[in-house]
């Protein structure tokens, strides 16, 4: 058994409805819900820090929560920040039924309102069980109930909780003013744990497993009251609504379905413009589907699938941000199977900016570009200080903006340089011959596109590329 599991159990025994201690063989089958707010931390990272180290298996739920199959699951992780995505009555009923059958539910949040929203959406769910996240910052130091066996806890700040009837709840952590930060109660045969998200790691690279002993112990205890079959681990459930539009699959949950038409309209405008900017169609098999994400915080691309945050940049009321995001994420599909080694992210955003210009949003696009350049020049005024190679200590603003600056210089001479570059890359860099695409290769291809040797110029910009390390030649 994890070294703090019994101590956590002792703490929880102060609440009604808790049964005997878990055995050392407790199996955790968890589902982390990202259907209400997609974040890169909770897309597998929470489980990696706190569930898998104690032998648990985790899957993600992207679909409408009430449709998630929880029959062979004993732990459900709910999390949400400032999101307009609602918890509908069917969601609340499904979560209640899961706990009544012995399942454990962990709700992680901190009170926040999305722009224009009148309430914090995670409260739609937890208030049905007699507790709410409140808009009061937690004041340190935090106090952990002694039976937990943990003297100190780390936090990113966070906010507090308030129970409508404190007698139904057992607090586990409170702040310096005696306000709750983590609390638990029995619901049927199972349990509900509600806590500030600031008590768990928040880095997308999952390198900050704060309070690991505390959380890992709690995961064992929360899962113990519902038996699962160890040979049938939980399965990730993708967004269940699928709409086919002109060869493109648009996938979403029921919550996000109303955004599908508006996003497809922007995609339809963007697609031909992107082919003009980049000079070639997407790589074969790429850009097969758009996945709508419940976030205002960006998106992702794995080549075949593009994820788009439906509220990015104030969408749908404002469209420039979504257009730039479309350009950014789809460019990652265009360049595969070889990502760009020098400027993968910076060039992707630059393509989004060029797309905005192409679609008549010149003012917004120029402002976005100028913002990046101004930020970069604070770190590197002449664009000569930092390399763009992978091992360079270049600040984020420089890594993003220096590629934009480079291509802005080249476009003064050849306005269609991006199209020239990507056409040549598609011709020359044959996957049957090349197993990787290096920074030296990219400058060699760019030199051919510009019809002059760019290696000395790149070296003058502090980027140590070398022609002798590449075999790229004109086809």
Describe the structure.
This protein is an alpha/beta fold and about 475 residues long. It folds into three domains: about 5-225, 3-Layer(aba) Sandwich (Rossmann fold); about 240-335, Neutral Protease, domain 2, CATH 1.10.390; about 355-475, no CATH class. It has helices at about 5-10, 45-50, 90-100, 120-125, 210-225, 260-280, 320-335, 345-360, 360-380, 395-415, 415-430, 440-450, 455-460; strands at about 30-35, 55-60, 75-80, 105-110, 130-135, 145, 160-165, 170-175, 180-185, 190-195, 240-245, 250, 290-295, 300, 305-310. Strand 1, helix 2 and strand 2 (about 55-60) form a beta-alpha-beta unit. The N and C termini lie far apart (about 65 Å).
Task: Give a summary of the structure in a few sentences.
This protein is α/β, with parallel strands linked by helices and 475 residues long. Helices cover 33% and strands 17% of the residues.
| Succession of helices and strands | HEHEEHEHEEEEEEHEEHEEEHHHHHHH
Round the Cα radius of gyration to an integer and report it: 25 Å
CATH architecture of the largest domain: 3-Layer(aba) Sandwich
**Number of DSSP helical runs:** 13
Our estimate of the beta-strand percent is 15-25%
Considering DSSP H and I runs of 4 or more, what fraction of the residues is helical? 25-40%
Low-confidence parts lasting 5 or more residues at pLDDT below 50? 1-23
Compute the separation of the termini in Å: 63 Å
From the spread of the alpha carbons, the general shape counts as elongated
The count of DSSP E runs of length 2 or more, i.e. the number of strands, is 15
Integer tally of domains: 3
Largest sheet: 8 strands, mixed
Structural class designation: alpha/beta
On the 0-100 scale, what is the average pLDDT? 92
The strands making up the biggest β-sheet line up spatially as 2-1-3-4-10-9-8-6
Q: What top-tier CATH class of the largest domain fits best?
A: Alpha Beta
Let me know the CATH homologous superfamily of the largest domain: Class I glutamine amidotransferase (GATase) domain
What's the CATH topology name of the largest domain?
Answer: Rossmann fold
């Amino acid at each position: 058994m994890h070294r703090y599991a019994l101590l956590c159990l002792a703490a929880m025994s102060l609440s009604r409805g808790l049964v005997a201690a878990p055995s050392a063989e407790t199996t955790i089958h968890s589902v982390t819900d990202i259907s209400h707010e997609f974040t890169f931390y909770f897309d597998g990272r929470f489980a990696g820090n706190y569930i898998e180290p104690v032998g648990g298996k985790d899957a993600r739920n992207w679909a409408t929560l009430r449709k998630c199959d929880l029959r062979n699951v004993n732990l459900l992780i709910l999390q949400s920040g400032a999101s307009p995505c609602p918890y509908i009555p069917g969601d609340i009923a499904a979560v209640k039924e899961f706990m009544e059958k012995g399942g454990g539910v962990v709700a992680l949040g901190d009170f926040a309102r999305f722009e224009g929203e009148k309430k914090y959406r995670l409260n739609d769910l937890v208030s049905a069980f007699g507790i709410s996240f409140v808009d009061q910052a937690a004041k340190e130091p935090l106090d952990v109930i002694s039976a937990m066996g943990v003297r100190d806890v780390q936090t990113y700040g966070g906010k507090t909780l308030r129970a409508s009837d404190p007698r139904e709840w057992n607090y586990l952590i409170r702040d310096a003013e005696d306000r709750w930060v983590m609390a638990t109660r029995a619901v049927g045969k199972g349990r509900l744990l509600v806590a500030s998200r600031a008590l768990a790691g928040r880095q997308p690279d999952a390198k900050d497993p704060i309070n690991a002993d505390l959380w890992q112990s709690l995961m064992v205890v929360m899962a113990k009251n519902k038996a699962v079959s160890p040979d049938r681990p939980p399965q990730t459930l993708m967004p269940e609504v699928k709409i086919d539009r002109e060869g493109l699959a648009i996938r979403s949950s029921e919550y996000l379905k109303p955004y599908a038409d508006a996003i497809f309209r922007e995609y339809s405008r963007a697609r031909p413009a992107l082919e003009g900017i980049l000079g070639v169609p997407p790589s074969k098999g790429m850009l097969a589907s758009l996945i709508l994400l419940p976030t205002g915080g960006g998106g992702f691309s794995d080549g075949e699938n593009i994820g788009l945050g439906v509220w990015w940049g104030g969408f749908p009321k404002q469209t420039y941000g979504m257009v730039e995001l479309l350009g950014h994420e789809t460019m990652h599909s265009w360049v595969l199977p070889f990502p760009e080694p020098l400027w993968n992210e910076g060039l992707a955003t630059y393509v989004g900016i060029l797309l905005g210009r192409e679609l008549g949003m010149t003012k917004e696009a120029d402002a976005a570009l100028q913002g990046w350049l101004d930020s970069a020049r604070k770190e590197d005024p002449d664009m000569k200080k930092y390399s763009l190679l992978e091992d360079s200590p270049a600040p984020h603003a420089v890594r993003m903006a220096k590629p934009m600056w480079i291509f802005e210089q080249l476009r003064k001479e050849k306005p269609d340089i991006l199209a020239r570059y990507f056409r040549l890359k598609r011709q020359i860099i044959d996957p049957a011959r090349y197993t990787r695409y290096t920074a030296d290769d990219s400058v060699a291809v760019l030199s051919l596109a510009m019809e002059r040797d760019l290696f000395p110029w790149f070296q003058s910009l502090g980027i140590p590329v070398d022609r002798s390390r590449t075999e790229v030649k004109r086809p």
